[in-house]
Design a protein that fits this description.
By secondary structure, the chain is an alpha/beta fold. The protein is built from 26 helices and 27 strands.
Length: 821
């Protein structure tokens, strides 16, 4: 350290406190990175790596264009510490003072330039007797907590909320499993889980703590999240409302179901393409888009609340002019949730306040709408216009303010008398500068003489070098450039001091006024957040109506009964990419388990998924892709679709399948909807048939509504054995080519047409050989069976003693086992 320059010693002292972050160290107009940080930045950002004193690798980015660089680093999972010059370099005595003013991590973003329109959740997980989960979106102020009993439920919450960053205790089990599902995971020391500190943070930061009954595990999850956020934002405290949610108060969608039904991501590349949310998300505000996702994450089970949403959607569906007007107004509303969060964290810019004002003006227009449905009427009635906030910003802030809050040009004329006087004084001085320029041109005869200003040398008189001979003797040389010379005079120096002093006073006063205005608005944060939520609700309800018109959806009837009856149902995503054949679904007490047979590619899996997605859409309050539907509310949807192994747990595809089925059988109720596709196919046909048979019998006892697609035609016998089991099938039309009519019918498919369908993709030689083997196996089996039957027919039972009869029966049993009958 003794051999380092003062600036590098300062750097190392600051870096010591932020070892796990890339330190962006402000030097003039650049942020510089040194040593290992510089090497990482050079590699990740593609910027030049140089060196300082041939000892310290160095790389830098311009301060005015830093956000694109930070965004790329954040997306790759890095932390970034922003170290600013916190005093004016021109006034600093010696080394400029520097401090870290912000630590940016993927889950603590508030900067508009770094955020997408989706929620940006930081998740905290703590394991005690249960798992405590906290989710905080710093950019919107949303703070959620819950507890779950199993790690599978933790994964389900991760898949629902898709957090971008997660904090967990260092000794947390299943860290690797968490890392598979969350891009950035930080194991933290026990300091973050000190019980007393966690409780104190909750008391200091949660405004409604007395109204929230949170469990012990949630205290640690929430407390550690608050500590992490405060350290990242470098704020003394934050004020948030905590919302406790209980998964069982909504339809439960576990991790497997979310994946299999492609609710938020498709199974091919993990993008939104082809997912349910892609179809439904026609929202016009960022707040609405985020709320839509939350509604899909947690479908309702309260029929009254579902009906209120459906009634609202129906009104907007039928009143197209009203819907279009509402959506046009909502398009003018900025992201209020994120604006007020920046206000709360004292990061809001003048442009944020203008956006807030314009958004609240749009709210005033919505108050003029006359709705008849209960939900829409209540939203409009409770919607606050906050005219005093609008008036404050309108009177104070110019229409197109600068981004910086320290360079002036923010406050309108007429808002502050003192500021107006300073501006008039500055304007008079600048007018006098112009008079000096005109006088000196006349006195010297130099037409191109001009008086200018820059922050380095101040005011100057600039003269082309070709006219230097005309410069008066009392001019003092100030700066030499390639084509001009710059001078000053005593009169100019005198007025310069007055102008600069006046300019500094103006900037300081504008800064103080802006901070007071921002703090005044911060007092209304809860009210503005309530406005934001109601705007989001209007957006989602109008969007449901919009997609319903666009895709020809109809209003479902939702009740607390058992039945799910769908007429001409369609798969909401598949129908957008192919000609879709609608199908009916009838799940009642008399037909509660539907066994579906038929060839591959006939549409069995699509039929299963269609039923589940229509049910989910109905329970979030959206119209559905069907001609008619009655939906008895379900408490959970379970799926077992597809085959995959799990190497990390040492599970084969069969073990994964059986483990998932085990979870379904353990947790399903008579109010659940179960979708099973080819259960048992990952093992031998007899074992698979036996397991599938036993599983159907067990589900029959539970009473859950079930769609069971299978190639085990033996299961068809269950229709005559178990009440409420019905056989349905998809048929195939054989000709020169195979034709799928995609229509579900009563009855059982005769065969699976596996080889026939394989003709579509396999070489002819392979297919021909498969037919030969198939015929040989059938002949061999038929010959063996005929031989056995002939042998049995030749037994003269009249001449057998009881002992001889038993011996003959034992021979027959052994031969049947050898033939695998």
């Amino acid at each position: 350290m003794a051999n380092l320059t003062p600036m590098m010693r300062q750097y190392y002292r600051i870096k010591e406190r932020y070892k796990d972050a890339l330190l962006f160290f402000r030097v003039g107009d650049f942020y510089e990175l040194f040593n290992e940080d510089a090497k990482i930045a050079s590699k990740e950002l593609g910027i030049v790596l140089t060196s300082r004193d041939k000892k310290h690798p160095m790389a830098g980015v311009p301060h005015h264009a830093v956000f694109p660089y930070i965004k790329r680093l954040i997306e790759r999972g890095y932390k970034v510490a922003i170290c600013e010059q916190v005093e004016d370099p021109s006034k600093a005595k010696g080394l400029v003072k520097r401090e870290v003013v912000r630590v940016i991590t993927p889950g603590t973003l508030i900067e508009e330039e770094l955020l997408s329109k989706e929620n940006n959740y930081l998740m905290s997980i703590y394991k005690g007797c249960k798992y405590g989960i906290a989710l905080i979106d710093v950019s919107t102020g949303e703070f959620l907590t819950t507890t779950v009993d199993t790690f599978d439920e933790v994964i389900a919450e991760i898949l629902k909320f898709t957090p971008v960053e997660c904090i967990i205790p260092k000794d947390f089990e299943n860290i690797e499993e968490i890392k598979k599902n969350i891009p950035v995971v930080h194991p933290l020391s026990s300091d973050y889980y000190d019980k007393e500190e966690c409780i104190n943070l909750l008391k200091e930061c949660i405004t409604n703590l007395n109204d929230v009954d949170i469990e012990k595990e949630s205290i640690f999850a929430c407390g550690s999240a608050l500590k992490y956020v405060i350290e990242s934002l470098l704020v003394k405290d934050i004020k948030l409302r905590l919302q406790k949610y209980i998964s069982k108060e909504y339809m439960i969608l576990d991790s497997t179901t979310l994946k299999n039904l492609e609710i938020f991501k498709n199974l091919i590349d993990g993008s939104r393409r082809g997912s349910l949310i892609e179809v439904l998300d026609k929202t016009v505000t960022s707040m609405g888009s985020r709320l839509l996702k939350r509604w899909i994450q947690r479908p309702l089970i309260n029929v009254d609340e579902i009906d209120k949403r459906l009634e609202a959607v129906e009104e907007l569906y039928e009143k197209s002019f009203l819907r279009q007007n509402l959506r046009e107004i909502l398009k003018e509303v900025y992201d209020l949730e994120r604006i007020v969060s920046r206000v709360e964290y004292k990061k809001a810019t003048p442009k944020d306040l203008v956006a807030l004002k314009d958004s609240l003006k749009s709210v005033e227009e919505i108050k003029n709408f006359n709705f008849t449905s209960q939900k829409l009427s209540k939203i409009v009635e409770e919607l606050k216009t906050l005219n005093d906030v609008v008036e404050l910003i309108d009177n104070a802030i110019v229409e197109n303010p600068p981004l910086s809050i320290k360079d002036g040009g923010i406050i309108k004329d007429g808002f502050c008398e003192e500021l107006d006087e300073l501006r008039e004084l500055k304007e008079n001085h600048e007018k006098f500068i112009k008079e000096i320029e005109e006088r000196e041109r006349k006195n010297t005869g130099i037409e191109k003489l001009k008086v200018g200003y820059n922050s380095v040398i101040g005011y100057y008189i600039e003269i082309p070098k070709s006219k230097i001979r005309l410069v008066p003797k009392h001019y003092k040389r100030k700066q030499t450039l390639s084509n001009v010379e710059r001078y000053t005079i005593e009169e100019l120096e005198s007025i310069e001091d007055k102008i600069l002093a006046c300019d500094e006073k103006i900037k300081n006063l504008e800064y103080e006024l802006f901070i007071k205005i921002r703090d005044k608005i911060a007092e209304r944060i809860d009210e503005i957040r309530e406005v934001a939520l109601k705007i989001a609700e209007l957006d989602v309800l109008a969007t449901f109506a919009e997609v319903s018109v666009l895709y020809n959806y109809t209003k479902p009837k939702v009740n607390n009964g058992y039945d799910i009856i769908i007429k001409d149902g369609r798969h909401p995503t598949v129908e957008l990419n192919t000609k879709f054949v609608p199908n009916d679904v009838t799940l009642t007490k008399d037909s509660r388990i539907i066994l579906i047979t038929g060839p591959n590619m006939a549409g069995k899996s699509t039929y299963l998924r269609m039923t589940a997605l229509i049910t989910i859409m109905a329970q979030i309050g959206c119209f559905i892709p069907a001609k008619y539907a009655v939906i008895g509310v379900v408490d959970r949807i379970f799926t077992r679709i597809g085959t995959v192994d799990d190497i990390t747990r040492g599970y084969s595809s069969f073990m994964v399948e059986i483990a998932e089925v085990g979870q379904i059988l353990k947790n399903a109720t008579s109010k659940s909807l179960i979708l099973l596709d080819e259960v048992g196919k990952s093992t031998g046909s007899k074992d698979g048939t036996s397991l599938a048979w036993a599983i159907v019998e067990y589900i029959h006892k539970i009473g859950a509504k079930t769609l069971f697609a299978t190639h085990y035609h033996e299961l068809a016998e269950l229709e005559s054995i178990l009440e409420g089991v019905k056989n349905y099938h998809f048929r195939i039309i054989e000709g020169e080519t195979l034709e799928f009519d995609r229509k579900i019918r009563r009855g059982v498919s005769k065969e699976s047409y596996g080889i026939k369908i394989a003709e579509l993709v396999l070489p002819k030689e392979v297919v021909d050989r498969a037919y030969e083997v198939y015929e040989n196996l059938n002949k061999e089996m038929n010959g063996s069976v005929k031989s056995l039957l002939k042998e049995i027919a030749n037994i003269n039972t009249n001449n057998l003693t009881p002992i001889q009869a038993l011996i003959e029966l034992d021979k027959i049993v052994k031969k049947c086992k050898e033939m695998k009958l």
